[in-house]
Amino acid sequence: MTKQEARNVMKEKRLSLTVGERNRMDDLILIHFQQLSLPDLFYVHTYLAIKENNEIETDHLLHYLEFRNPEIKIVIPRVEQDELVHVEYDETVEVVTNKWGIPEPVNGQTVSEKEIDLVFVPLLAFDENGCRVGYGKGYYDRFLRNCRADVLKIGLSYFDALSPLSDSKDFDIPLTHCITPHRIYEFG
After folding, report:
1. How many domains, in total, are found in the chain?
2. 3-class SS at 111?
3. Which has fewest Cβ within 10 Å: 75, 96, 103, 157?
């Protein structure tokens, strides 16, 4: 399967889920996430879910991390000139929906990608090698290329891994983990 084929199939599959199905699977994803052996984290980058696309929201995972470490800082992205800028997320940050329907901050303190310890990476699908399929613009691959080598790159999916994608490229940055309602995938 190609990335575009996976993108089309999995987007439709995710959109077909009911609220009840998503809520049940969100709980199972949280349970699996809590089983991860995580190092000390200071900066955690998360996407803000596009509700119309039934993206997995990370709020419950972030609350768990904040419970474990009240000093943790949450960072959210903003697109500027085809790159992601990372903004510390707190009650003073105003969030608006951009022209692609993605919620993003319009103000706030920026953070270097080198400071980020964990990234929740948005995806539509992923394969057995940890290659993710996003929306096709390459923002996260460019961002992850600039992160530290030890950054945790965690995807969240309602569905299990696909067979290896036929058109994965060398510039694709693989996930370190992907968490589904059924299991935790770990990638080399």
Report:
1. 1
2. strand
3. 96
